Fold each of these.
Amino acid sequence: MSKVSVHWFRHGLRFHDNPALFEAINDAERFYAVFIIDGESAGTKTSGYNRAQFLYESLCDLDSELKAVGSQLFIFNGVPAEIFTTLHREAGVTHLSFEQDCEAIWNQRDDDVRRTCLELGMEVIEKISHTLWDPFDIIDANGGQPPLTYEMFVQVAQVLGDPPRALPNPEWDDVIFGEITDELATKLKLAPQVPTPEMQGWTQNGEAPVYVGGERRALQHLKSRLRVEEDAFRDGYILPNQVNPDFLGPPLSMSAALRFGCLSVRKFYWDVHETYNKVNRGQSSATHSLTAQLIWREFFYCMSANNPKYDQMKQNPICIQIPWYKNPDHLKAWEMGQTGYPFIDACMRQMRKEGWIHHVGRTAVACFLTRGDLWISWEEGLKVFYKYLIDADWSVAAGNWMWVSSSAFERQLDCSVCVCPVAYGKRLEPTGEYIRRYVPELASLPHDYIFEPWKAPSKVQEKFGCIVGKDYPKRIVRHKTASKANYKMMKNIRDSLKLAPKHCAPSNADEIRQYLRLPKACFHNIVEGKY
Ligand SMILES: Cc1cc2nc3c(=O)[nH]c(=O)nc-3n(C[C@H](O)[C@H](O)[C@H](O)COP(=O)(O)OP(=O)(O)OC[C@H]3O[C@@H](n4cnc5c(N)ncnc54)[C@H](O)[C@@H]3O)c2cc1C
């Protein structure tokens, strides 16, 4: 049988390390590269403007890479299973390839497509390259259940061995590209060009993203990122992004590129390890700790793979049920960066504007919304993150929210001092420049008051043109009182949970300290669960 193949891009928007694409073009008589606008794929259902823009740039980049080798990215509108049926019947397509999307949210879509292909006698090629390991192998190796702590995950992953190395780009020289007739183009609603976010109904509303999508951009970006890692290895430490959280420097995060697969996670993983080996003269880095953050990503993907209720509290077997408050005013103030706590507001405003904030900023705002201050459900925070973050992933975002909030009843997380919205901000970015950048109404205040403007005497507030309650909001809650009340609620619920159900939780106090990027001095408070 001659092979006429379609590669369906969903995530994995790249040429490099794309095993499904590799196999699709191998010995194909004709080949088509396809993306489908179905209202959901690539997370478009929950997306705001910034993520839609990043996806648009990534698709444009892929389209131009395909044009350079003699083809294009065909962008169809409709239901994937129906589109592949039409392509089979009218363009003679025999093979369909795609990268595994392991999150349970995609099961229905992919099951429909697999079933349709089977009925039509088409061959399906599905390969794993969005994660380092196949999450289902981890689940099998863990006795049929996903590991619920990071430490457990690392142990299981070690049993599976090193992740595979990244594949090179495919060779395009001998590939013959298929064409789409005008009649078929009309049937499949072929987009004449990559549609902009505006063409699909998104409107720009003050957003100013700093990350640009696309494989070529991601690979360039990786080079800068590896230089930072190399400098750290030369200076004798690892995980520079964790050790020195940089709030003010140029954007260096790879998370959006990884989320859309413009960059292969396996390439990132192995490039960091090779950089380490180069600096340490061939000394092997046979440890996952060099790339511990990528293991967190795996951990959350794996946990969600067989749990369609993973992004909600009810009916989610790994989430503790908590009677959170409903307070739309507080929720809105938090979302808009109007809580009266400058560090929290700076983080929320940066996220809305640029589509990204540092991990420690995410932790600060997530604690503040949930167990720390407002006692509002993590599900509400998750919806806001889905809307604004360019790297927002169904599973990674929900997993992190559960870890930070639902695990509230872990005694070790009960430290109001460590995650105080004032002290935490001061420790992470002591100059106050970050607040000045994102909360301009506070920009002229003297440093003494930048983290706590309510402490500025009225004369100072008048002199610097920032009256609290007029130019900048009053605090919506008092951290000291709110966190004390929350602490009591946590304790009562914990006491009532005679046997806590198995839930997503931190492994130990040191992990909490590292995840929250707290200094060693916080260790005692955490261990003792000191209020
Ligand atoms: C409440 C909350 C929600 C989050 N939601 C998301 C999300 O939707 N998508 C997302 O990619 N990250 C999410 N994170 C994790 C983390 O904050 C970002 O991945 C990180 O800020 C990206 O910056 P970086 O690339 O410089 O990270 P680095 O420290 O350089 O890490 C490299 C890569 O590892 C992965 N990674 C790092 N930390 C984590 C983590 N805790 N969990 C999972 N993966 C991680 C990311 O892909 C990241 O790009 C969330 C964190 C919190 C506290």
Note: The mean pLDDT is 92.
Amino acid sequence: MITAHDLHKAFKTKTGTVNAVQGVDFQAHDGQITGLLGPNGAGKTTTLRMLYTLMQPDRGEVRVDGIDARKDPAAVRRALGVLPDARGVYKRLTARENIAYFGELHGMSRAQIEQRTRTLAQALDMGDILDRQTEGFSQGQRTKTAIARALVHDPRNVILDEPTNGLDVMTTRAMRGFLRGLREEGRCVIFSSHIMQEVAALCDRIVIIAKGQVVAAGTADELRAQTGEDNLEDAFVKAIGSDEGLHA
Ligand SMILES: Nc1ncnc2c1ncn2[C@@H]1O[C@H](COP(=O)(O)OP(=O)(O)OP(=O)(O)O)[C@@H](O)[C@H]1O
């Protein structure tokens, strides 16, 4: 389970201060997919970066399985699998070597790494790319490699920044199936997207972020009820006050 409480983050730039995240609060539960939905620049990536300890919040608290990220960031990292916005796949290594390298960093044995790689490569349909050097990989192939690498240590909690960004229809469908599998295994899954249809297709709970704040949260039915709109698209538009993010 992942809890964000009153998160704030501002960036000082040459032209002034950007208040990227201004009091974000939500909970993501085990056995559920929670979608962070919001238009470009809403603060999704900054929120996720604070959840996975890459960035310290200016204010507020992150807890993963009850562990305070400020007090024990290493334990939080062990409990998390993260697909960051910059996929950062090592291009001199094969996909298998990328996965194994992360396994080694987590202190896993060679046998454990081999067994996990087999499971993940099958789930992500990576058979034909596993032993190819990742230089020249397509976006989808890089994303799959980065996801397998993120999950090698079998984390209970999974955070994915725009996992279907740039993927074709078939790969997106396969990715959705994979994320549902993580939910069925009882994991806590959070993913961000700026596309409403993407979130609607997958998520048990939706957290809508606009201008650094949570403007609505709940199941699709709850969001419709909260906004007084019959369809989710209208509910989303009403919650964020514009129609950005309605179309891929
Ligand atoms: N390192 C930084 N320095 C300055 N401003 C930043 C920095 N990181 C993010 N921002 C600003 O903070 C705001 C939120 O950005 P963020 O990347 O979190 O949005 P997002 O919801 O993930 O958007 P997108 O859907 O476009 O990826 C934006 O205005 C962005 O320009």
Note: The chain has a mean pLDDT of 92.
